[in-house]
Amino acid sequence: MEIKKDILWRVYLCFLGVVALSLFVVGKAFYIQQVQGAYWKSLSDSLHLEYRALDADRGTIYSEDGSMLSTSIPFFDIHIDFLADGLREKDGKRFKENIDSLSIGLNGLFKDQPAAAYKKQLESGYRKRDRYFLLKKKISFEQYQALRKLPLVRQGRNKSGFIIEDMEKRLTPFELLANRTIGLSRSYVDGNKQVVTQNVGLEKTYDSLLKGISGKRLVRRISGGAFVPVEGSEIEPENGKDIVTTLDVNIQDITQTALMRMMIDNEALEGCAIVMEVATGKIKAIANLGKMPDGSYFENDNYALKTSEPGSTIKLVTVMSVLEDKYATISDMVNIDDGTWILKGRRIQDAERSPKSVMTIKECFEHSSNVAMAKLAYNYYNSNPGKFYQHYETLGLTSRTGIDLNEEFRPTVKNPKRKDWHLQTLPSMGFGYEVMLSPLQLLTVYNAVANNGKLMKPYLVNSIEKDGNILRGFEPQVKNEKICSPATLKQLQECLRAVCIDGTAKTVFKDAAYTVAGKTGTAKVNDGNFKYNDGVYQSSFVGYFPADKPVYTCIVVIKNKPHAVRHFGGAVAAPVFREIADKLYAERKEDQPEYIAVRATDSNSYRWSGYAEEVKSIMKKMNVSYQDSSNKDQWSYIYNNNYTPALKALAVSDDIIPDLKGMGLKDALYLLENMKLKVEVKGNGRIVNQSPASGATFSKGQTVTLELN
What is d(CA 633, CA 411) in angstroms, rounded to the nearest whole number? Predict the structure, then answer.
């Protein structure tokens, strides 16, 4: 009996324990669901939802005449959520009714596989209940617009399940032209799987303005680790601002072509050429070319901003110092003997034998005597070298120019107070050694001489704009109103003209239709890669034209291959300057007295082409009535029909070249590059001619040449 009571007591106790535990579990579940429910739901969402950055459209970089130098073209990835309510309701009735027509439409749009293959793909994704099925990657804007009109897709995301993700690709329509100065905007994934953007040039300097402000997009994690955008949850980005540069596409093309021709002809290692507008300091062209391992040339570095020993082009500073301090005039004589001077055991020698042993300072300058310039610097400033250094400061040569490019090198001009100043520093500086300057820094000095002594700050950007409205404009800046006295300036200008008439550049400019003032330079290279005795020379020429009424200043600097037969500045750099100057002078008809301007006759004939909806939008905003026979085509052109604008469909096919006349470059690039064609552009404005002609057949990779007006 006692044993039975003991067993019953234990059973009751266990039963009560189970009841108590059950009540606790039920109570806890109720508490979690009713009291803490909101907290746990939000925690669950945080594991499946997250915000991701939504990139803004990057701004466009334009030339001064409105040509696009760097722009972004949108591309799209297309996914499908096969669990979308609209696709699944009524046992997938909507999907089944539209799959055939959708497959035919996809085949007609992309032409990469039969409609039956598309149908099989879609059915497979539907069966697998794929929530992030990849249909197409990187389709063009034109294809995206056509896709939105296909069956099922046009019913919207909730009913079709189609998910559109947009991205952009950065393009430079003029390719090599000013490529390094405009800069690159390249993205890559680093070791930590983070997207890193690397820029140079203007793309880097103005990156914060160009890239805009990113938005946000809420995405949901689904099976397989993929993330699907949550519709209606986007915080729209603020698109980037546009940059309008001072560059002129035509001048840039002329400059780069002339430099390229000499680089190839002389098998040079690297070179640059810059054209500056005298009165303003605007950079109109800046070309940089380096020799690649395969022997081709590319804008791989901004040599215009890198420093080197300038050689004889610095002799202008030496002569200016002596004249300004009134130690001499250009008619004073200098004894150069046989072109050799021994100073404290060091031999200083002229590169070429001068015609006389005793010459005026002007003659020494025009024949580029190293001995004469070394003597002027040493004899007049040895007792007070700080005075010589002050002239470099006056000319802005001891600091960066401040141009709109972050990678500008700092010049190296020895200060007499430095420990590395020694006995030979002054004479070396006199003819272009022991000082490191960039081509751009030298150009600003010569530009000041052309500009009647006014030293201008060089700049590359005219304005920052948003939707065509100027947010900030940049005006010419004067760094120094007067680099020297009028008397000194007049003598300097006379010396520079003499170089091109009777001196080291006389052969190059002897038959020019305009006057030139400038200076040749030849320097042995000692830059870490090469030593002085390696036989590598840097050739240069810097000057302005027309000399009597300067419009442009230009510098050409070329580093030649070792032991190049042609290496003097007058034989390598000056011909490039001449080619640039010839073409620019020929185009500036106002500089030619025989030219009489004729007003262009008016014409009622016109043709503009573009995306139909954009053309219609422009006409509507301008309150211009027009005849519309475009039949809802995507591309159209507008022309004059009995004094009334008429809109007509533009035939665009995947197997023939379209008629691009009257179209802007950006629209033409959309069409041609999506047809896998290469594009070569000449001029700026709207397209007036094309080759091959419209209607011609083509093969992928073929080049289409566009001539703009």
Answer: 59
- If asked whether residues 552 and 584 sit together in one domain, one would say yes
In 329-343, which positions are buried (b, 16+ CB within 10 angstroms) versus exposed (e)?
Answer: ebeeebebeebebeb
Q: Domain tally for the chain?
A: 3
Q: What is the pLDDT of residues 172-210, one digit of tens each?
A: 766 667 677 777 655 544 556 555 556 777 778 777 787
Residues 90 and 107 in one domain: yes
- Identity at 202, one-letter amino acid code: L
DSSP-derived secondary structure for 643-704:
TEEEEEE----SSB----TTBBHHHHHHHHHHTT-EEEEESSSBEEEEESPTT-B--TT-EE
The per-residue pLDDT for range 412-450, each reduced to its tens digit, is: 999 998 888 888 999 999 999 999 999 999 999 999 999
Which pLDDT score is estimated for 227?
A: 58
CA torsion angle for 399, 401, 403, 407 (degrees, to 10)?
-40
Task: Find, among 480, 542, 491, the residue nearest to 310 by Cα.
Answer: 542
The helix or strand, by DSSP H or E, that contains position 346, with its residue range, turns out to be: strand 346-349
CA-based torsion, 202, 204, 206, 209: positive or negative: positive
- For residues 311 and 277, membership in a common domain is answered with yes
pLDDT higher at 40 or 399: 399
Q: Are 504 and 520 in contact (CB under 8 A)?
A: yes
CA atoms within 13 A on the CB side of 111: 7
Structure tokens at 304: 């215009």
103 assigned to some structural domain: yes
Report the C-alpha gap between 277 and 427 in whole angstroms.
Answer: 33
The total of other beta-carbon atoms located within 10 Å of residue 230's CB is 13
Mean pLDDT of 335-360: 88
Q: Is the peptide bond before 645 cis (omega within 30 degrees of 0)?
A: no
> Do 359 and 306 sit in the same domain of this protein?
yes
- Within a domain: 253: yes
Residues 6+ away with beta carbon under 8 Å from 50:
218, 219, 221, 227
Contact 666, 684 (CB under 8 A): no
- For residues 171 and 70, the answer to whether their CB atoms sit within 8 Å is yes
Residues 581 and 512 sit within 8 Å (Cβ to Cβ): yes
pTM: 0.70
Whether 548 is covered by a domain: the verdict is: yes
Q: Do 275 and 460 contact (CB within 8 A), yes or no?
A: no
In which region does residue 685 sit, left (phi positive, over 0), alpha (psi from -120 to 50) or beta (all else)?
left
In a domain, 436, yes or no: yes
The interaxial angle of helices 370-381 and 315-324, nearest 10 deg, is 40
3-state secondary structure of 128: coil
Minimum mean pLDDT range among 28-42, 202-216, 575-589, 646-660: 28-42
First-to-final CA distance of the chain: 117
